[in-house]
Amino acid sequence: MKPYENEIQALLSQMTIAEKVGQLQQCGPSLVGAFEVSFEELLDMMFDGRISHEEFERLMGTAEQDYHEEALRAGRIGSYNGIADPEIVNRLQKIAVEETRLGIPLLFGYDVIHGFRTVGPIPLGEACAWEPDLWRRTARLAAQEATAAGIHMTFAPMVDVAKDARWGRVSEGAGEDPVVSSAYGVAKVQGFQTEDLSRPDAMAACIKHFAAYGAAEAGRDYNRVDLSPQRLYEEYLPPFEACIQAGARAVMPAFNDISGVPCTGNRWLLQDVLRRDWGFTGVTVSDSNAIAECVVHGYSRDKAQAAADAITAGVDIDMSSDVYVSELDRLVENGTVPMEALDRAVADVLRLKFELGLFEHPYRTDPDRAARDINRPEDRALAREAAEKSVVLLKNDGILPLQPEKRIGVWGDLAFSREDMLGAWAVGADGNLCVSLADGLTNQNISFVSLQGETGLAEVASCDVILAAVGETKDQSGEAASRADIGLPEGQEERVRQLVDTGKPVIAIVFAGRPLAIPYLAEHAAAILIAWHPGVEAGNALAEILYGAVNPSGKLTTTFPYTTGQCPMYYAHTNTGRPGGRSKFTSKYLDTPLEPVWPFGYGLSYTTYAYQDLQASRNGSGALSVSVTVSNTGDRSGDETVQCYFRAPAARRVRPVRQLAAFQKVHLEPGEAQTVSFSIPIQSLGYYTPDMQYTVAPGTYAVYAGGSSRDCLETQVAL
Ligand code: NOJ
Fold this sequence. Notes:
Number of helices: 23
Bound molecules: 1-deoxynojirimycin
CATH topology of the largest domain: TIM Barrel
Number of strands: 27
Helix content: 25-40%
Structural class: alpha/beta
């Protein structure tokens, strides 16, 4: 037992009920003053166009922040979120330490999702690097920057497996596959937390959203989830379990319900699965206002019941709904909520504060570093590396890399936008620090003709090649940004058609927070780069790829369908009794091809790779040994992500046609060959039977290895 467990008990024995409940209260600063309506209403007014963005910013500038200091002094606040100013953090911390009765330090949380000051690619983009070491290093940098500003916990990584491109939050996670999402989540947890959470630059990871938020029906945000327990365990829970095993110290229950029970009130999920089965001893933090929303779901009768439901289910911290502080004292006093439930939650909060070393070093900020950290060249170099590795080349008829003598024309607002390069959830960042595509070209002394505006088309005649920047702004993905049509937004395709019709080759640079349905581009563009939202170094990374200083190596971690109607579309589907084919009565659509435009795992390079000699055998230590030789058959060095898949034999539940088992990225010089070996625990190839027994089906397994989920060698092995 850790020494602080005794101190936790000692503190609990001194605390009043009100002080205990205070530890569970997390609030953000509220905006007060200059405007008549609530902050939420103001946000709505901006989003539905009643006031302009500029007017919104102006009003925000006049507003005052209310940090609820009276409540803090009274011991009624245990943590804050959304504050990233070290002076304010220290001022509030001083009140907690010096002016509250027990002097328990505060915990500060923040959404540090893909970088804090130095923003890198959105998670869906960074995932396409298939490189845990990179994922760890960018998380480390984010933690260093954020902790300097006084942040102790980030609400990240998001490890929601997401198969439906309509859902706006696919941008925040690693894509559709549990193996990739697990590896991504574990690397992020390690990078944020390090081995020792008490280090001044370590930050607790709050993994989210537990669970199956990515399975929201029809891809509509916050929507219901109704899922078999088998699929939940096989496809959605593994990244969470992997992150817990890697030491993640906080978990955020999801907004959605699962089969009718909101995760925020889900005792089975938060007690049985998380704490009993997985041995989690950290803290749970509700999503914003989610405890109060148990009433809106129609699960809890009123706020009092919502408070009781959430605390007994195992939600420790109430983020922003104020339901615990308004209801729990009374519920504990009248015996509705047992004191043990309250004590357990408070102990979780205190434990994290001890682990972070806050009792010894409550002022864990570094204002000098926080000021210095903005825009350091070495940090931007890492952001650039991440951006370069996240870009996926989906098509190239040979036009890329571009010849420097070609005269290029650039079209599309996104080519000139800095702010949009940040993507969703970059709340601590400054969009002015981003390099747009146009900036990136200029930085490399590449002159171009702007094809913007009415007269733009007329300028095409003077160009050899057109760069068309298309796709989504940063607000078109992320939370509350589901789309019922995942095609190119707002008339972009019409303009691209006009450009294509000029006969000049069009290179599409696609900025997006989700897979887009872009079959027209797939057919008519000379080349396509999916840039996602690449972060501060966007334009520099893209210019290097366009002109060949960098050889693209990203591979999709999510499937690109032809059309929205195919969503959810993912590679690990089951076969059905009538797999889609030429004959009429098979599983397909009348009006769209069966296959995706680009499958999971896909991505081109300026060089080519060949695979040969796939071997699979069972080794003595309960693992499946797989090896394959990959060679660089082109004339440039490159990085290739070798992917290993399997298909299980007939079992007591149907299994997917292909499932990722392992992956490894290799660097190959021209002509070089490398044999890549995987040791895959046979235990990891199992499934859940109808009565929820985890079983590895005996029989002959198909094993695949190659450069995408579609392009693989195949062999068989008996297990
Ligand atoms: C709501 C989002 O669902 C969650 O991901 C985020 O961490 C919290 N708000 C806090 O901002």
